Amino acid sequence: MLKKLVETQASNPLGRQSSHHLFEIITGEYSGRRVALMATSATDIELTWADPPYNNWSTSQTILSDANDDSCDASIDANGNIYLVYMAITTGYIVSRKLSFVSGVWSVGSQVEIYNGSTCYNPSVSIEPSGKLWVTFTRYFAPTFSMYVKSSDDDGATWGTGATDTGTLITSGVTSLFPKVFISLNEVMLFFTVNGNSLQLVKKQISGSTWSSAQIITSYSVSDGYDMTLRPDGRVGLLFGAAIIYYMEYDGSSWSAAELILDGATNPNIIFINNDPVALMSNLTDGSKVELMQSIRKAGQFTTPVPLDPSCTFFDKVLLYDASDGTFEDLTTQAKSYISSDTYHSISGCLVKDTADCVYVGMDVPFRYIHLALNTVGVGGEVTFSYWDGDSWVAVSPVSGDGTLSAISEAVLLFTDDLLIPSQWQKSNVNSINRFWVKLEVTTGFSTGPVAEMVHPIPESDRFQVRR
Prior knowledge:
By secondary structure, this protein is mostly beta strands.
């Protein structure tokens, strides 16, 4: 189910690829409640939550307005308290806030400076089972970055020996550096990328005090595109890659060989179903569209990646109908391809042209979005949108506005989210093909008919995160 939460103008609404902003309370009266954090502007971070079955999310609440328009990270403890780390807009310092969860409500604590000696970047936070907090961040010493780690034993009131304490230096002299702190069953693990061409690890026992030397996990290309989580049996699953996604596992002493999952993908996220890893990623399709994909490992092998949401891949069928001679033409292949001006009816030379000309787009599941990439925009005409309810075609007024097909990129949002898709929408036969259809029908003829490059239902998604 796709549900709209908020609108945002922030540069990084979800932080870096390896940060976390979606959580679930796992114990107590509010067990199952999910909470999402999002940057919604250059300074604001908002919170919204929902209880099962997650159809109704709370009105988003601004929890702070002092964040720099950069990355932030968060972690949740067993009691539902959230610890947020970010760069303060006025100082550039890395700071933290505790969002205390009491009687079903999150209250925002005071800003605490983690380090106030210079501008810092890319904070990451995690929590030991004991409640001890760990944070890692980078400092910039032109022209390179250095990475530090600090901890808090008093619920985030003090980090290290105080705000002037830089913490422990982990690495330095790196031109590109993205860190992540992660707690396994027995270790505090500090992952970091070095110059976009290696992923490295420094670790220590939770009960210990000595950090290991840096270990190169992989020398494949990777910047901030990596994610990890615990398997139920205690192993660490790691998904990473800058353009090719790989998977590895850590058994507490060594790493497995890298398994290639998908070429041409980014934004890796990893979860487990039982002990089976599920890889989630963004796939650049045909050089133009980003599809969210998933692959699960069964019997020791990852399945061929498939769309995460079957309504957000290419249409099963795209049919053009020319009213002047009553003919249908199947342009499904052309509508998928990134080839200029190849989607048109052979009679009119256009996608649609005259009154009663139609475009039919169909899938095996209902959908909510149509994107028309036009090489020639329509002039002077108008189309209506409708779906079949079992008896007749029912008009839809798109959330995104009218249907003049007069823009190079026509993004037609039929319904805001999946919950608003009409329950009475039914499959029907168009040219003897049974699908869930949306009909675009010309009601006012075009003086210049539109010609398309692509027609598809893939939304303009560029980032996503999964709940742990």
